[in-house]
Each structure stands twice: as structure tokens, then as C-alpha cells.
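Researcher: We plan to redesign the surface later, but first we want a full-length starting point. C-alpha cells attached.
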């Protein structure tokens, strides 16, 4: 009897075992985020970012525990329900949303702050896509061209609804993440690669069409697509001039930091959005070239660790979830750091785990809870 209870106890404990090679980088990210925000307070003359971010991280680790307790199987079963809730939350912004910087992307919750549903929609889309792709592979081990086409139509419809709702807020940056998540997950799904050539061709056609109208007649462009979309395209095509002040000060801050940075309390150059979009510039200003290399190395290690997990995962739905999360994180890392150096347009995409923000951080922690479940499942099968 004692032996039976001991086996059950050990089994339950192992369910919540956390992969330290994934947990430790997250803890370091938390420390880097808090330290950078502490130094950023003096740039922005704000004194409450650090305690709020600490609270968000504590809530995030609680969410990881909840997700690990619930288990991924239950979450997969609820994928369509979650998808519906996510789309309703995006739709509700048109009636109850709060506008910040000409974008209606948030709900205001008294006593807590703002809530951005599109951040959670990214994770919901990963879950829904993974469930759809794995079911398709189970139902059609050797699919015909027609079966793959119908599947792609279904995937496109799933992608279209949240993309349109998010684009109308407007938030082009998150829409790009939706598309990239779906593309990455489809790419490893096993469907014929000819479909990607067709998708790429259709995408290029529409880009050329939109840009053609833009360059031929901007008045016609505004009549067709509206002023808001015109301003976004104009900014993407000429971001160095449209965002000169912010970008130039960001580059000056990084360039003047030297090997070891200005320190946490010395910020000689001001630039907006130092706590979110340009937090890498703020971090580099504090810790210099050496600090930047350390953070980039840690991000690369974290990404490689997740890629390795995806490669070792046998269960298809889990493999697709990890692939979607990795695609999302790498794209945001490249986009955020790239725009900090003026190499990519400024799109308002934050640096995962580092930038200030409750919605984005909590959404990543939901994903990490699922990642830990997948890692645990792998360890149980291999041990």
C-alpha cells in the first residue's frame, strides 16, 4: 500500500516538474526587464513601472502554474471556445475600447490598467492552428491536392477574422505576427511546398498592387484604403524620416554607451517609448556593448532550446505549438531590435519578456506554461 501511494505521489510531483534550461532564461529575462525599467524611470520621469512589472511577473508565474495544472489536452479541447472568446474581445474594442496614440487596441480595467486582447489572440491562434493541423494530419495521412486545398481555405478563414479585427484597430504589427505564426506552422505541417510558392506569389501580387496605387495616385489610394492605412504605408516606406527623432536618439543612446554603458541612473539622451518599443536601446544605454551581447546571446540560447524541444517532440500537436511560439518570439525579437537600429520599420512590436506590459507578458507566460507541459511529457517518455 505504501508503495502504491509513493508511486502516485511521485507521479503527481513529476507532472509539475519544470525544465530548468527554459526556466532559468525566463528568470534572467525578468531580472533584466526590472533593472532596465528601473533605469528607464529616469528617462521617462515615471516611478511606478518597476513595481507593476514585478507584479506582472508574479502573476505570470502563477499563470504558468495554472496552465501546468490544467494541462495542454484540456486547452486543445477548448481551442474553438478560446478562439471565439478572443474574436469577441477584439470585436468589443470597437464599442468599449480605449484609444491610445490613435489606436483602439485596449480595454481599460479600473484599478488594474489596460488589457490588450490581440496579445492573447496570438497564443489562441497558435493553439487553434495546432489543433487544426494535427487533426488534418490524423484524418488525411496521405492527403490529395483537393483535400489540402480545402484545409488551406479553412486555415485562411481562421486567420482572416482576427486579422481583419486587429487591422481595423489599427495594429498592423500584430497582424503580421498572426500571418507569420500561421506560415511557420503550415510550413512544418507536411503539406506540399507548391502551396507556399502560390501563397508567396499571391502575397507579392497584392503588395505590388497596393504599392502601385500608392505611387501612381495617393488620392486614389486614400479613397480606396482610407487615410489611416495610407499613413501606415507611408510610415513603412519612409520610417527613418517619419520617426527621425525617436530613432536618432535611440541610436545616439546606444552609440554613446561604450563597452559597459552609462549605468542605471545616468541617462544622457531622452527618447520616447523607452519602456516598450525601444527597451533594447534603453538596456544597451545602461549596460553597453557587453550587456547587449549578453542579452542577444541569452535570447539565441532560449530560442535554440525551444527549437530543440520542437525537434524532440513526438506528438504532432505539441510540435506545432512549439513551432508557433518559436516563430512568434524570433520574429518579435528581430523586428524589435531591428527597428531600434533603423534596419526595420517602427511597428510598435515589443521585445518579449523584456518590454514593459501586462498583456504581452501574461500571454507569453501562458505559452511558457504549455511549453513546460510539452517538455514534461517528453521527459516522461524518455525516462
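Model: Full-length starting sequence:
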Amino acid at each position: 500500500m505504501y508503495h502504491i501511494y509513493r508511486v502516485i505521489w511521485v507521479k503527481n510531483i513529476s507532472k509539475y516538474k519544470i525544465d530548468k534550461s527554459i526556466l532559468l532564461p525566463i528568470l534572467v529575462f525578468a531580472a533584466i526587464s526590472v533593472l532596465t525599467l528601473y533605469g528607464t524611470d529616469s528617462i521617462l520621469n515615471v516611478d511606478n513601472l518597476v513595481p507593476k512589472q514585478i507584479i506582472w511577473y508574479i502573476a505570470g508565474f502563477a499563470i504558468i502554474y495554472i496552465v501546468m495544472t490544467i494541462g495542454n489536452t484540456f486547452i486543445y479541447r477548448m481551442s474553438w471556445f478560446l478562439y471565439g472568446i478572443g474574436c469577441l474581445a477584439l470585436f468589443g474594442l470597437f464599442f468599449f475600447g480605449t484609444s491610445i496614440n490613435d489606436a483602439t487596441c485596449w480595454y481599460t480595467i479600473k484599478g488594474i490598467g489596460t488589457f490588450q486582447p490581440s496579445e492573447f489572440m496570438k497564443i489562441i491562434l497558435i493553439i487553434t492552428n495546432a489543433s487544426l493541423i494535427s487533426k488534418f494530419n490524423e484524418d488525411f495521412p496521405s492527403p490529395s491536392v483537393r483535400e489540402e486545398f480545402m484545409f488551406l481555405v479553412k486555415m485562411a478563414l481562421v486567420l482572416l477574422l482576427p486579422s481583419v479585427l486587429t487591422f481595423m484597430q489599427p495594429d498592423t504589427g500584430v497582424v503580421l505576427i498572426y500571418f507569420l505564426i500561421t506560415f511557420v506552422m503550415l510550413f512544418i505541417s507536411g503539406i506540399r511546398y507548391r502551396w507556399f510558392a502560390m501563397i508567396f506569389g499571391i502575397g507579392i501580387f497584392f503588395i505590388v498592387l497596393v504599392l502601385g496605387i500608392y505611387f501612381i495616385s495617393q488620392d486614389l489610394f486614400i479613397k480606396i484604403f482610407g487615410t489611416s492605412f495610407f499613413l501606415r504605408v507611408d510610415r513603412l516606406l519612409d520610417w527613418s524620416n517619419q520617426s527621425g527623432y525617436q530613432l536618432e536618439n535611440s541610436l545616439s543612446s546606444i552609440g554613446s554607451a561604450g563597452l559597459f554603458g552609462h549605468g542605471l541612473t545616468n541617462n544622457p539622451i531622452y527618447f520616447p517609448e523607452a519602456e516598450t518599443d525601444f527597451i533594447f536601446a534603453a538596456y544597451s544605454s545602461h549596460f553597453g556593448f557587453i550587456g547587449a551581447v549578453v542579452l542577444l546571446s541569452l535570447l539565441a540560447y532560449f530560442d535554440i532550446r525551444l527549437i530543440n524541444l520542437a525537434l524532440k517532440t513526438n506528438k504532432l500537436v505539441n510540435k506545432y505549438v512549439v513551432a508557433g511560439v518559436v516563430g512568434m518570439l524570433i520574429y518579435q525579437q528581430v523586428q524589435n531590435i531591428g527597428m531600434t537600429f533603423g534596419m526595420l520599420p517602427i511597428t510598435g512590436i515589443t521585445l518579449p519578456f523584456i518590454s514593459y506590459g501586462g498583456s504581452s507578458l501574461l500571454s507569453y507566460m501562458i505559452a511558457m506554461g504549455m511549453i513546460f507541459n510539452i517538455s514534461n511529457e517528453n521527459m516522461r517518455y524518455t525516462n
